[in-house]
Design a protein that fits this description.
The structure is a homodimer of 234-residue chains.
Chain A (H helix, E strand, L loop, with lengths): L1 E7 L4 E7 L5 E5 L6 H10 L3 E6 L11 H8 L2 E4 L9 E2 L5 E4 L2 E7 L8 E5 L2 E5 L2 E2 L2 E2 L9 H11 L8 E4 L9 E2 H7 L8 H9 L9 H9 L13
Parallel strand pairs in A: 3-4, 4-5, 5-6, 10-13
Antiparallel strand pairs in A: 1-2, 2-3, 7-8, 8-9, 9-10, 11-12, 13-14
Helix pairs in contact in A: 3-5
């Protein structure tokens, strides 16, 4: 398996490339519109064929590259049925997404947004904005719900083996990876906190709105594609 | 082995943590002064003891955390004899640095600076600013020499197995890792270029001076430690 973590410095967003070395089939998780050329170049250089683009959720802080990548490569866009209407395949908890010989297991992990998914592939867990390294996604817009997020993290993600590698959708402190065990013990929003504590903490954060909320959410509901009909952009 | 790639967004610098899981002995390669607290926290959380700090070279674009880490942990600072006089152990091509049960092999790879080292540990190559992903370090200050850099990359680094993972000291495009084979084939400064071509290319770059050159080089010759005698800071 070929695995690459890619970073968009402007929005501190991680994109992940996973590919089956035997067949050359590849997946991108959470690509960023401004980085599409970089990502396509890497795919070309490694002789890979993009077969799917997976979205962990409808992002509010950057515009997805999914629609443009679909147009350029024919890849299918995969996400939650609660998310963008523009996707090709809607997946639910327990579904399997095959990329050549790779298997990505779909986990529903709502709470940051109601459409949030995580993906598990070969000991690597891609958590989007549900579980971050020593943090979590916020829960104050896009039908976020702190109780739901607590349940998703503690009942779904934290039940995976402790050495499962955690690859988040963002990091703002320069961390690239953690593990389930490390987050159980050292995530300050979760370690030793009850569900009620967590809800109280999240409701008290009073964060400013995400920088690109008004632009990013409508754009991402259209898979980031500026040429889609306006009817899909609301 | 525990391995972590860490990023300083302000200077696009990568720091690497390597640790022997059996003994808890750890090494940091190219720590950044402003990130010392983050790095110490991670060491504490993982129950690790910092035994060595390795410098790939005297940096011109950020101040090292080596001196402060040494003071806080007792770790030994390891670098080239051509670099900072403040280090504890000066190493040469072919030397071995042991970190618990881990072995880091020292490779002299001058040309970006005359003191540039790379380190090889268990299939991972830490190249500092000699070889970058799809690029190289510049060669126009600190006794840089494009011919020397070409030789170091093509005769030392490119003779390693093709699947050796390349972890650079910086990246400005959001790449985190490459391989020797990928760089041989796709590095635009090297692929298909003769030594003469490379020298011509590097001599024509006409880059502005690094932002922190005047501050960083003297500070790094004192291991980044503001309390060292002034005599060591020149």
């Amino acid at each position: 398996m070929l695995f690459r973590q890619l970073f968009d410095a402007e929005t501190s967003t991680y994109t992940y490339l996973l590919a089956d070395a035997a067949t050359g089939a590849a997946a991108l998780i959470d690509p960023v519109l401004e980085q599409v050329e970089r990502d396509l170049k890497l795919l070309r250089e490694r002789g890979l064929t993009l077969s799917v683009v997976l979205e962990t959720h409808v992002h509010a802080d950057h515009v997805t590259g999914a629609g443009v990548l679909r147009e350029r490569t024919g890849a299918a866009v995969v996400a939650s049925p609660r998310g963008a209407p523009c996707v090709d395949r809607m997946v639910r908890h327990g579904d399997l997404v095959r990329v050549g010989g790779l298997e990505l297991h779909v986990l529903e992990t709502p709470g940051h947004t109601d459409d949030s998914l995580s993906f598990l592939c070969d000991g690597r867990l891609f958590t989007g904005d549900a579980l971050l390294i020593r943090g979590t996604g916020r829960t104050d817009f896009q039908n976020g719900d702190p109780g739901q997020l607590y349940d998703a993290i503690t009942r779904v993600l934290f039940r995976l083996p402790e050495d499962t590698e955690v690859y988040p959708g963002h990091d703002y402190a320069g961390h690239t990876v953690s593990t389930v065990g490390e987050e159980k013990r050292h995530n300050p929003r979760l370690a030793g906190r009850s569900r009620e504590d967590f809800i109280f903490l999240m409701q008290g954060l009073r964060l400013p709105p995400p920088r690109k909320l008004d632009v990013a959410v409508p754009a991402n509901r259209a898979c980031g594609h500026p040429l889609l009909p306006r009817s899909l952009q609301v």
